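Worked example 3. Consider a protein that binds zinc ion.
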Amino acid sequence: MAMQVVQAVQAVHLESDAFLVCLNHALSTEKEEVMGLCIGELNDDTRLTPSELFTSILSSSCDVLIRGRTEWKFRQSSYLRPQQRQRLAELTGRPMRVVGWYHSHPHITVWPSHVDVRTQAMYQMMDQGFVGLIFSCFIEDKNTKTGRVLYTCFQSIQAQKSSEYERIEIPIHIVPHVSIGKVCLESAVELPKILCQEEQDAYRRIHSLTHLDSVTKIHNGSVFTKNLCSQMSAVSGPLLQWLEDRLEQNQHHLQELEQEKEELMQELSSLE
Ligand code: ZN
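Given these inputs, the predicted complex is written out as structure tokens:
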């Protein structure tokens, strides 16, 4: 008998630094979909009925995966490797697990496709608290001519009168965060490396073909260089700028605190 797929999550809380990393990844390319995993913890404090576990997910991190057909690559990587799990626990001080997946929809609607809904249903069979996040980007508002990003969180449920699945929207809350978590910082810094690796792999695969004439080879080389350059302008450049801005902000904050400390020390010594 097929297992019933039900909505098991009440809400998702996504920390703003994890949100930023997802967004950075989603905006890295408009040519294809990107995907990654959400890492976090489950709070099952609101148990409604004994048979249904309602969960709220706190996702405090994300893991960038290799681009490609989401439904294939995901299978092999839906669970954290032991070293990864340990590293995450060390960094966050809490046990972490994969709680969901995210992927981008460049130039198309934010709503999950039939394939997305089926893929999601499959993961819910293994883990009913699993959620899916979609970031729709590179869509231009016709009136204002500005780009916009939409995002949604969903789970799949069994349709009423058929064996098909339907999507159900899960409320998602972005939790503000003053500082950026270590795990998120690592993911953010890892992103340009992964993207570069993918380009290199693709280039090497084509380059190893022996029957190519030299004009084609030169063309491929130029495409490779061009792709690396667009990555630098779309991902590495903004990331570097963002980190430099943060550094400046932090130094400014540090100065203010030093000043405050000085003042308090003076006040203290005048009391003695
Ligand atoms: Zn999709």
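Take a moment to read the result before moving on. The first strand starts at residue 9 and ends at 15. The chain has six helices and eight strands.
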